[in-house]
C-alpha cells in the first residue's frame, strides 16, 4: 500500500507537487497519469526517498522508504532507464545490487530470464537499446521480489511485442497481490492495463478512482453504428432524443450520443433496419483525460504555478 498525504515539493520558485494526497492499493495496477511536467516523476522520487518533500508524507506500507531496511525487498522501482552504469554487463549490474541488498545470486538469473534478457546478460549495458534498458530497469525493480513496484514511463522505447509483454507482467504482478504503480502521460497506455487511476495536473490531484469511474466522467460516451439505411435510422434515433452525426466518406456510419447501444439495437430491430456494426466508443477514456487535464497542460499556457 502506498499512501501519499498532503505531499508538496518545491524547487526554488517551481512547485512541482502541491498538497497531493492519494492511496495506491495492493492487488491492482494503478496508472499514474498527467501531462508532461505534471509532477509524476517528482512524486515517485519522493516516494523512494531520492528527494525530500517540502511538506507532507509519502509512505510505503506505513513507513517512509528511508526507514525500510534492504529497500529492494520492499519496493522495486524503474525510474530513469538511462541512469545505469554503461560499462558494466547486465549480470554484473544486477549481481552488485543483489549483494548490497542481501539477496541470493539466484535472483539475478531469475529476473534476467523473466524480462527476456538472459541471452544479453554478459553484454555491456552501454550497447543496449532503449527497450533493452527498460527491460533491465524492470529486472532491477523485480530483483528483490518486492510487494510494491513503481514504474516511471516503462513503455517508452518498447516495441509492440514489448508493450504487450509489459502489460501482461503488470497484470500478473497485481494478481500476485502486489501494489503496482505505473506512470504515463498517455491514457492509451493505461486503459487496457490499469484498474485504478491517479491523475494529476500541475502537481495537484485531479482524480483518484477506478478506470470505470474515470471513463464515466468523460463527454457522453458515443456509439458508432454502420447501417445501409442511415437516413431512416437517424430520424428514429433523433426522435428518441439522441444526437446523431454522419461520418464521411460513405455516409453509412453514424456516431450517436445520448442513447446506449442496447436501445439503438432495439430501435433498429423494431423498424427492420439492418445494422452492420455497433460499437460503444472507447475514446471516452482518452476524452475524459484530455478534458480533465486541459487546464493543467504545462506547455503552451505560460501561466506561473
Ligand atoms: N530537480 C528539479 N529542479 C527544478 N525543477 C524541477 C526539478 N525536477 C522537476 N522539476 C520541475 O517540476 C515539475 C514537475 O516535473 P516532473 O518531472 O515531476 O513531471 P512529470 O509529470 O514526471 O513530467 P514528464 O511526463 O514530462 O516526465 C516540472 O515543472 C519540472 O520542470
From TrEMBL:
GO terms for molecular function: ATP binding. This is ABC transporter ATP-binding protein. Residues 2-227 form the ABC transporter domain. The keyword Transport applies. PROSITE patterns: ABC_TRANSPORTER_1 (PS00211), ABC_TRANSPORTER_2 (PS50893). The keyword ATP-binding applies. It comes from the Bacteria. Keywords: ATP-binding, Nucleotide-binding, Transport. Transmembrane segments: none annotated. It comes from Streptomyces camponoticapitis. Belongs to the ABC transporter superfamily. InterPro entries: AAA+_ATPase, ABC_transporter-like_ATP-bd, ABC_transporter-like_CS, P-loop_NTPase. Pfam families: ABC_tran (PF00005). Gene3D superfamilies: P-loop containing nucleotide triphosphate hydrolases.
Amino acid at each position: 500500500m502506498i499512501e501519499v498525504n498532503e505531499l508538496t515539493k518545491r524547487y526554488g520558485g517551481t512547485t512541482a507537487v502541491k498538497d497531493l494526497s492519494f492511496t495506491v492499493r495492493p492487488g491492482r495496477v494503478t496508472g499514474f497519469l498527467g501531462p508532461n511536467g505534471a509532477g509524476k516523476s517528482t512524486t515517485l522520487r519522493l516516494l523512494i526517498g531520492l528527494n525530500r518533500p517540502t511538506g507532507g508524507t509519502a509512505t510505503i506500507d506505513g513507513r517512509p522508504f528511508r526507514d525500510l531496511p534492504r529497500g529492494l525487498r520492499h519496493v522495486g522501482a524503474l525510474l530513469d532507464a538511462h541512469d545505469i552504469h554503461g560499462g558494466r554487463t547486465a549480470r554484473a549490474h544486477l549481481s552488485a545490487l543483489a549483494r548490497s541488498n542481501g539477496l541470493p545470486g539466484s535472483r539475478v538469473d531469475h529476473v534476467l530470464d523473466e524480462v527476456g534478457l538472459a541471452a544479453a546478460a554478459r553484454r555491456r549495458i552501454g550497447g543496449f537499446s532503449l527497450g533493452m534498458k527498460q527491460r533491465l530497469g524492470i529486472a532491477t525493480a523485480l530483483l528483490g521480489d518486492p510487494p510494491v513496484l513503481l514504474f516511471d514511463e516503462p513503455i517508452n522505447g518498447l516495441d509492440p511485442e514489448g508493450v504487450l509483454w509489459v502489460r501482461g507482467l503488470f497484470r500478473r504482478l497485481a494478481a500476485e497481490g502486489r501494489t503496482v504503480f505505473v506512470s504515463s502521460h498517455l491514457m492509451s497506455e493505461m486503459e487496457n492495463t490499469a484498474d485504478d487511476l491517479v491523475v494529476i495536473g500541475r502537481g495537484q490531484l485531479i482524480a483518484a478512482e477506478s478506470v470505470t469511474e474515470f471513463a464515466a466522467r468523460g463527454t457522453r460516451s458515443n456509439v458508432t453504428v454502420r447501417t445501409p439505411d442511415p437516413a431512416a435510422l437517424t430520424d428514429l434515433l433523433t426522435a428518441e432524443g439522441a444526437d446523431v452525426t454522419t461520418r464521411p466518406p460513405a455516409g453509412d456510419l453514424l456516431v450517436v450520443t445520448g442513447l446506449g447501444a442496447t436501445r439503438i439495437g432495439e430501435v433498429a430491430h423494431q423498424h427492420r433496419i439492418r445494422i452492420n456494426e455497433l460499437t460503444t466508443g472507447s475514446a471516452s477514456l482518452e476524452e475524459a483525460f484530455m478534458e480533465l487535464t486541459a487546464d493543467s497542460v504545462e506547455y503552451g499556457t505560460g501561466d506561473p504555478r
